[in-house]
Amino acid sequence: MQNQELQRAISAIHVRFGGQALVQAGRLPAAQPWPTGLPAVDRLSGIGGLPSGRISVLQGPSGSGKLSLALALLARATREFARVVAIDPRAGLDPWTLDVFGADLAVLTVIRPQTQAAAGEAAVALARAGVGFLLMLGELPEPSLAPLESAAARSGCLVVAVAGMTEAQRALAHASSLTLRFEPVDLIWERGQPVGLWTRLRCAKNKLAAPGGEAELEMRYALAARQLPDLPARERVHDGARQGAVA
Fold this sequence. Notes:
Helix content is 31%, strand content 28%. By secondary structure, it is α/β, with parallel strands linked by helices. Helix 4 packs parallel to helix 5.
C-alpha cells in the first residue's frame, strides 16, 4: 500500500513539474574535481579542485579579490572547455580584460540579461544544456536556485558564482556545494604602486569535504601584471602551507 502511495506521489510530481523534477540519487553523477591550478583553492575544496556538476560560490565584500579570482578561473576554463559562458546582468565584464590571463575568447560567450528573472532562466537553461563552465556575475532570483542546482548535477556543468553579502546572495551561497569566503588582508606594493592584495580564503561551506579550512592567496591586479611582468610572484606561509599566486 505504501509503495502504491509513493508511486502516485512520484507520478504527480512528474506530471506537475516534468520528468526531470525527480531523479533517483544513483542516476546523478558524482562530483568530479576541476583543478584550478591554485593549490590554496584546490586544497580548501577537499577534493582537489572545484566540483563539476555543482555550484561553487566566491563570496565576500567589494575589493576582497573574489572577482579577480573568478576572472582567472574563467580564463583557465576557456583553455580547457569547449564552451564557456559568463552571465553578466550588470554589463560590467569586458572580455578583453581576460587577455592578460591568456584566455581563448573564441570559446567564450557573454550573456547580458536585462532582469534577474531572465538571468535565472538563462543560467538554468545553460546548465541543463551542459555548458562546460558557467560563471554567474550578480544575483539570481531565489526560485531559480534549486533548478540550477539540479540541472548542473544532471549535466555535469561547473557553475561558479560571484556573490556579495546581501540576503539574496546569501541564498545563492545556501544553494552551493562549496562556498569560499574572501577577506582582504593587506595590499601588495611594488615600486611605490599597489599591484595586488593578500586575501584570506575560508571554506565557509562544503558538502563534499570538511569545511573550515583557511589559506592566504596573493591576488595580482591585471594592470600590474601587464605593466610589471618581470616581478616575481610572492608567496606567504600560512598554516604551514605555501600558497600560489593569481596574476
